[in-house]
């Protein structure tokens, strides 16, 4: 699988069930998020704009993706907002489309423009991002066309601070958003692939 193929397979609406382990607090928190993924062509204005933002030649781009999300976590205060949108732009390392730069207008762990790395490892897609005060590693893989898994670790100076595991299920047109029972039963049938 190539990185753009992964984004094409991810296109659509997803319901994500997340468990975040706060390692310093030795506690876990659960939450839900609805995610919308849209693939963007190389000539899409926002893709070109992000290339200019990061001073990257837009002719090197193989594609992009816009991701929007809205969700909640168990420990939220009224002022907490787990919603937003960002655009990813893929710039391969020369002729190797399996890895390269990942340009973002907004990062995962910090809401700033950032250049990370992407790599396809055979069964999934790995996104690695170094920020000024922390780093993030995120891995996605598909169980089937409509179920995918996502893991994430966030490391701040001094050690790991959080690790998350998400099970995500595609929302099919006409289906209600309350799909947690189906998601759980599909997850229980899954045999982990080296996790």
Task: Walk me through this protein's architecture.
This is Chromophore lyase CpcS/CpeS. The protein is 14% helix and 53% strand. It has 3 helices and 10 strands; from the N terminus they run αββαββββββββα. The protein has helices at 3-10, 45-53, 180-189, and strands at residues 12-22, 27-40, 63-73, 82-93, 96-104, 114-120, 124-130, 134-144, 147-156, 159-170. Mean pLDDT is 83; it is low at 177-195.
SSE order and pairing:
Layout: H1 3-10, E1 12-22, E2 27-40, H2 45-53, E3 63-73, E4 82-93, E5 96-104, E6 114-120, E7 124-130, E8 134-144, E9 147-156, E10 159-170, H3 180-189
Antiparallel strand pairs: 1-2, 1-10, 2-3, 3-4, 4-5, 5-6, 6-7, 7-8, 8-9, 9-10
Give a nutshell description of this structure:
With 195 residues, the protein is mainly beta. Helices cover 14% and strands 53% of the residues. A ten-stranded antiparallel beta barrel has the order 1-2-3-4-5-6-7-8-9-10.
């Amino acid at each position: 699988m190539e990185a753009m193929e992964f984004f094409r397979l991810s296109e659509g609406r997803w319901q994500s069930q997340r468990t975040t382990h706060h390692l310093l607090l030795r506690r876990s928190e659960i939450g839900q998020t609805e995610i919308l993924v849209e693939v963007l062509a190389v000539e899409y204005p926002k893709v070109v704009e992000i290339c200019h933002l990061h001073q990257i030649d837009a002719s090197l781009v193989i594609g992009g993706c816009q991701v929007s999300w809205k969700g909640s976590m168990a420990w939220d205060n009224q002022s907490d907002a787990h919603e937003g949108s960002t655009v990813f732009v893929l710039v391969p390392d020369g002729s190797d489309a399996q890895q390269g730069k990942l340009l973002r207008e907004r990062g995962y762990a910090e809401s700033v423009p950032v250049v990370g790395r992407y790599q396809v490892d055979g069964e999934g897609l790995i996104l690695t991002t170094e920020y000024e005060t922390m780093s993030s590693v995120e891995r996605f893989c598909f169980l089937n066309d409509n179920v995918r898994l996502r893991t994430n670790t966030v490391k701040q100076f001094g050690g790991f601070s959080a690790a998350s595991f998400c099970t995500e299920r595609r929302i099919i047109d006409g289906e209600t958003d309350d799909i947690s029972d189906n998601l759980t039963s599909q997850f229980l049938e899954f045999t982990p692939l080296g996790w």
